[in-house]
Structures are given as C-alpha cells and as structure tokens.
Sequence to fold (262 residues):
Amino acid sequence: MLQHPQFDPVAIAIGPLEIHWYGLTYLFGFAAGWWLGRLRSRKPWSPLNEEQVGDLLFYLALGVILGGRFGYVLFYNFDSFLADPLWLLRVWEGGMSFHGGLLGVMLGLWWFGRKTGAGFWKIADFVAPLVPVGLGAGRIGNFINGELWGKPTDVSWGMVFPQAPDSLARHPSQLYQFALEGVVLFAILWWFSSKPRPRMAVSGLFLACYGAFRFLTEFVRQPDPQLGYLAFDWLTMGQVLSLPMAIAGAVLIAIAYRRETA
Fold:
C-alpha cells in the first residue's frame, strides 16, 4: 500500500501571489502543444505555417479554459455554481471537464478554420495529435492535488489519499488516465498522423481512442460524489459522455476512408 505524497498545491508563492501546480500543468500543456504544432506545421501537407500556430493556440486556450469550466458546471456541479456563482472563476481549485473543454475547442477550431479558410476538419486533424500532451499534464495536476482518486482496491500499488473520506487504499486512477489519455494516445496519434491521412481520419481516431480509454478507466475511478452512479451501480457521467465520442470517432474514420476509396 502506498501513501499519496501530499504535494503542496502552491508551486510558487511571492507575497500574496500564488502560482498553483494545477495551473502550471495547463501552461506546460499549452507550451508543449505550441512546440509540437510548429513541428507539424513544417510538414508539406500542413494547413498552417509556423506563425499561425501561435494564433491557433490562443483560440484553443480560450476553448479549453472556458469550455472546460462551463462544462464542469453544467455536467458535474451545477448546484455549487448556484450556491456560489463566484466559484466559477476559481479555476485554481480544480473542476474542469474534458468534455466541456472539447466543445469549447471545437468551437475555437471552427472559428479559426473559418478565419484562415482552411476549414474545420483540416484544422481539427492538425490539432488532434497535440491534445494528449495537455490531457496527460492535466492528469498529473489532478494527482498533485490529490483529487479524482479511484475506487478502493487491494492491489499492491493501491494508494491512500488523505483527501478521501476514509483511509482505504485506492486506485491511483489519475495516473492510469495519464498513461492512457496522455502517453498512449499521443503515441498512437503522432504515429498515425506522421503521413497524410484522409480528412477526418485523425480526428476520428482521437475521438474513438479517447472515448474508449475514458470509458474503461471510469470503471476504477470513484464517481463524483455529487452525482454518484447514474445507473446499474457502475455507469458514471464520464462514461455517458465518452461512449458517444467513441462511436462518433469510429463513424468518422469509416466515412473518411470510404470517401477516399469512392
């Protein structure tokens, strides 16, 4: 049995100014995405040049932060927002939804694709391989905060999270998600997108893999206490939101390759 390290959530404190590790993980994700995006922009089939990658990052950052926060409020914790509307602005306390962030990013991609004339799908296929780095960084932020822990377990790597309402060893589900949503998903998408693919195929693979990975890890992740299980004593909100993603991704891949052979 392991013990959670109990990191100080504040990475740097200068007088009243506090910089949290959670915020730094987001900053790292954006910086890594910018660097990887510039590498991808040098490919002959890239819809963007290096200078445009920085502009794109601005739209993505807005989509992630605004969509992620509003999505968390809408999908997971609307009651807290009603009780304390200013809680919406305290993003350093945690509380971001990937699915809300995805909707925000999609809106940003649509606007940027329209602005540049490249269209939504070309920009989406360009961005998809960059996203897992940010996802993985966010899961490390969750682990540092000691939040979103897993279900009780007797495996040797089970971990006690002092923030949990008991002293039970639990799955370190944040690290599982870091491995699947961050490392594995990045490796798959970076390899797949290393040469030209049919339009929508890269985006479809991202949706299919993320949806499947998230659906599986939800089986060992403790559901949000304010929601619990939605049905069958195992179905979580994360699974309800992720299954349509996986299905939509598979459909996009099929359409992409059917168009290519038509």
